[in-house]
Amino acid sequence: MTQSGSSDLRFTLYGLDHHGGSEVDASVFADKLKKLVSGLKRLDRDYNISGQHMFMINDLEFASATVVLREKVMKTRTVRKSPTRRFAEIGAAASSSAQFTIENAADEYALGIYKSLSTGAGKSFSYGVVSATESPPVRLDSLLKSRVESIISSALDAASEAPPKYFRGVALETYDGILKVVDIRGLFPEAKLVLSAGGKEISCVVAASDVEMLRNAFGRRALVTGQAQHDGHSMLPSRIDVSRIKVIQDSANILEFRGSLHNADPDFLEALGK
Questions:
Q1: Closest CA to 174 of 97, 132, 226
Q2: What is the CATH number of the domain that holds 182?
Q3: Tens digits of per-residue pLDDT, 106-143?
Q4: In what order do the strands lie in the sheet with 8-14?
Q5: Which end of the chain is more exposed for a tag (fewer CB within 10 A), N or C?
Q6: Phi then psi for 99, rounded to 5 degrees?
Q7: Which of 58-67, 81-90, 175-184, 205-214 shows the highest mean pLDDT?
Q8: Using an 8 Å Cβ cutoff, are 57 and 74 in contact?
Q9: Distance (Å, rounded) from C-alpha 7 to C-alpha 85?
Q10: What's the pLDDT band for 259 if we cut at 50, 70, 90?
């Protein structure tokens, strides 16, 4: 009997005719089951923050390659969504002729699971079925794989046409942080600016003629100004084309910084002036 608040998900693969119809390659079934369980765990983390469930084998039907997975609540926190129930709903929607809209990254990931489960239908197995009590059964075959690919492709196209969430373009900006060595050889010397607030890193590039400016600032806190290149995917720029560096504070442990270069490439050390 199903426990209160739990959900069952039935997964079946059917064998190829030349294997006798009722027999399924064990390695194929094991691979698909592993992907299904791993996918459900990932969905549980996405829908319920840190994950609230284990997925238990509740039944195995030995006359066919069928397993029933039972969703078992393991934590006392409130469950926002049942991963197995939502997974079954997404599969049913994707397999129907109605238009399906991806609501979030977890839904897209669930579609990816269906694509993976359907891959090989007609070649390594005949077809498969995923079913749950409150949703229509989903046939795992080449048609479902094609539909899932179309849904994901449409979502990607829509996302590319949508206005960026963050600023996209170039702006003169200044950031506060500590510069770390990357590579100052060649025409476009580069360093990483570790921001004082938050610790995130930004790539900083200077002209070869300004490499001395980088040398003087390595391992020290500085204000870095330049043309900030924003790609629209983050509040921070993906790169700063540096025009000015103002050192505002020596690092408390510049000797440690120098020591970190002990095993560096000799050509790199020569370029750095060590």
A1: 226
A2: 2.40.50.100
A3: 899 999 999 999 999 999 999 999 999 888 999 999 99
A4: 53-61, 65-73, 8-14, 127-132, 135-140
A5: N
A6: -70, 135
A7: 81-90
A8: no
A9: 7
A10: very low
Residue 73's identity, in one-letter code, is V
Reading the block at residue 143, the tokens are: 């048609």
Bridge partners (DSSP) of residue 204 are: 191, 240
Percentage of the chain beyond pLDDT 70 is: 84
Residues 146 and 176 in one domain: no
Other beta carbons less than 10 A from residue 196's beta carbon: 15
Structure tokens, 88: 């079954």
For residue 12, give the nearest of 20, 2, 22 by alpha carbon: 22
| CA dist., res. 73 & res. 168, Å (int) | 43
- What whole-number distance in Å separates Cα of residue 134 and Cα of residue 162? 35
Amino acid at position 157, single letter: D
Alpha helices in the chain (DSSP H): 26-47, 83-95, 105-118, 142-161, 211-215, 254-259, 266-272
